[in-house]
What we know:
It is a single chain. The chain is mainly α and 159 residues long. It has a single domain (8-150), classed as 3-Layer(aba) Sandwich (Rossmann fold). It has 8 helices and 4 strands; from the N terminus they run αβαααβαβααβα. The strands form 2 sheets. Strands 1-2 form a two-stranded parallel ribbon. It has a two-stranded parallel ribbon with strand order 3-4. The chain is globular. The protein starts with 7 loop residues before the first helix and ends with a helix.
Amino acid sequence: MGPMGVGKSTLGKILAAKLGWPYIDNDSDLAIQSAMSIEDLSKLSVPELHKFEAEFISRVIDGAAPVISGAAASVVENEHVLEQLKSVYAIYLVIPLETAIERASVGTVGRQAITESGVQIVRDRYERRDPLYRQVASLIIELGDSPEADAEKILAALR
């Protein structure tokens, strides 16, 4: 878990490859499950998208383990999913707020709302969600500049 642009997909793919576990990609697998294209998902209103994302991660959590899944940043704002996340090994990937702002880009799933007042929206989301991530995280990892090194930190914690 973590803010948009933190590297959930990048780290998820690295960890899945190293562990031999399935990787469930939030965007592409959500598109398959919803029978919508990623482009169509990116055109949904924010509340509609968040509903789809919460339903999706809830199904992932209820599914067979172990898996690696990069949960959409919004799911911690869903009370049901927040409770479910407490029952799994949830890892909060932390980057500084300024880095999250730099990495936020328009045009991908979940970033519809940042086309206007983007910096403020990213800041508000980061500040609102950080305590929620911390509340459910089994592990909190401060990320560095190397996804491979970050993956090794996570692997060490899993061992």
